[in-house]
User: Which sequence fits this backbone?
């Protein structure tokens, strides 16, 4: 398993180009399962999670070919509406194949994802929604076995118990080929949901309301072909903003999207960073102070502060002036990074879903272990500041969601080395 060796203390400067969004690319690739035409996608990040979804799609008989950041999907050959445990267990988002496979084939067999490091993360809302659309669903030997009663799913009104991002996406995709109108209430408003809806619309789907909490989908007979570019990754953007802030750096982030990050930019500004967004050039510039100020955070669905930025901002609070309270409201076990940050000298107390972080002067290098994707990012950020050389183990988590992270950080002046076993 690869490790990352980071020598802290370098002030980041220069320019970093942001990649396509993982959390938009995954559902959009699954949208390729809905059409018998072709989908040419651009700005698809080269990540482990993307490779996993491409493997799953290829196993269904749909062909996916990749050339750098471009993926070409030909939906014609779909003959095996199955997503196997071997692939699904490595990535929860594989459940996003369920809605499209069921809608297109009238049947699907998709492994249940199982638990993960940040919480139980059930998929009951995906299943309940599809049942409401007329699917018969059984769980057998760890698989969701789904079948439509008639030839097609049937549009209906669905109100999810909680805001779920992939749940909304799964149901929205399934509804594209259902009979009649589907209304999803309490829908997730995340920008990635809008990006998926825009891609589906480009394929001929009839969707309105994406980006609000009520999405309406009018089912169509079939989808056509399209050419679409995946939105920039707002969480990667936020992570590099934090990396710059941690080191007192000044960097330019290009090829990004500025409006999706308001809540993160607001918090970083409260910490003392000066962030200027250039909407026309799709770039952000951050200039960070010598010493950050602590800031309280509470994660919640978009447009509030994203849970996917909680770990990175906790790292910043570790060396900030003051005491911060961080409340995690989305996932019950998303503080695994805190104990690793403490190995670097952070002062953090956890009580249920609240972390209290008392800023210390600086962190010191140690061996730490990545536990999930964003936790890994927080350890990288902490290591960029810590005195000495920090080894981060199990960075395969990082490779799931950050394209070329060593190259990008090295380009900004960080001292980062990957050590392969
Ligand atoms: C997506 C993102 C992930 C992000 C999360 C929250 C992708 C591929 N992943 O994950 O990076 O951290 O949104 O912004 O886009 N829940 C249920 N039953 C369900 C579905 C969800 O109880 O059927 C609960 C979850 O356990 C969690 C909450 O609802 O507590 C929100 O989860 P959800 O929005 O579904 O997260 P994901 O879509 O898995």
Assistant:
């Amino acid at each position: 398993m690869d490790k990352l060796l980071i020598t802290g203390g370098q002030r980041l400067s220069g320019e970093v180009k942001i990649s396509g969004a993982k959390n938009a690319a995954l559902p959009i690739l699954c949208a390729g399962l809905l059409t018998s035409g072709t989908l040419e996608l651009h700005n698809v990040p080269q990540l482990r999670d993307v490779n996993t979804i491409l493997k799953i799609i290829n196993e269904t008989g749909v062909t996916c070919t990749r050339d750098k950041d471009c993926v070409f999907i030909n939906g014609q050959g779909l003959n095996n509406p199955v997503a196997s445990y071997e692939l699904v267990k490595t990535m929860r988002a594989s459940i996003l194949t369920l809605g499209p496979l069921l809608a297109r084939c009238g049947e699907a067999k998709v492994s249940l994802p199982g638990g993960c490091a940040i919480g139980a993360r059930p998929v009951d809302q995906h299943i309940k929604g599809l049942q409401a659309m007329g699917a018969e669903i059984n769980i057998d030997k760890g698989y969701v076995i789904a079948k439509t009663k008639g030839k097609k799913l049937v549009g209906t009104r669905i109100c999810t118990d909680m805001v779920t991002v992939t749940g909304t996406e799964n149901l929205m995709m399934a509804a594209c080929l259902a009979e009649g109108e589907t209304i999803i209430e309490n829908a997730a408003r995340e920008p990635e949901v809008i990006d998926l809806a825009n891609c589906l619309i480009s394929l001929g789907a009839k969707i309105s309301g994406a980006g609000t909490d009520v999405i309406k989908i009018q089912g169509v007979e079939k989808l056509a072909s399209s050419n679409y570019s995946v939105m920039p990754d707002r969480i990667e953007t936020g992570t590099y903003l934090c990396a710059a802030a941690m080191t007192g750096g000044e960097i330019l982030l290009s090829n990004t999207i500025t409006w999706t990050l308001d809540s993160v930019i607001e918090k970083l500004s409260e910490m003392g960073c000066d962030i200027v967004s250039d909407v026309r050039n799709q770039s952000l510039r951050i200039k960070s102070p010598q010493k950050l100020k602590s800031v309280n955070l509470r994660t919640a669905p978009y447009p509030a502060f994203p849970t996917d930025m909680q770990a990175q901002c906790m790292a910043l609070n570790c060396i900030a002036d003051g005491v911060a309270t961080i409340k995690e409201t989305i996932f019950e076990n998303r503080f695994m990074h805190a104990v690793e940050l403490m190995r670097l000298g952070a002062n953090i107390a956890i009580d249920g879903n609240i972390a209290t972080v008392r800023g210390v002067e600086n962190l010191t290098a140690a061996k730490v272990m990545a536990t999930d994707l964003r936790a890994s990012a927080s350890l990288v950020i902490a290591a960029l500041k810590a005195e000495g050389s920090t080894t981060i183990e199990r960075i395969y988590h990082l490779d799931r969601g950050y394209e070329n992270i060593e190259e990008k950080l090295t380009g900004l002046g960080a001292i980062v080395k990957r050590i392969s076993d």
Observations:
- The pocket of uridine-diphosphate-N-acetylglucosamine is lined by residues 23, 26, 92-93, 119, 121-126, 162, 164-167, 192, 307-308, 330-331 (CB under 6 Å).
- The mean pLDDT is 96.
- The first strand starts at residue 3 and ends at 7.
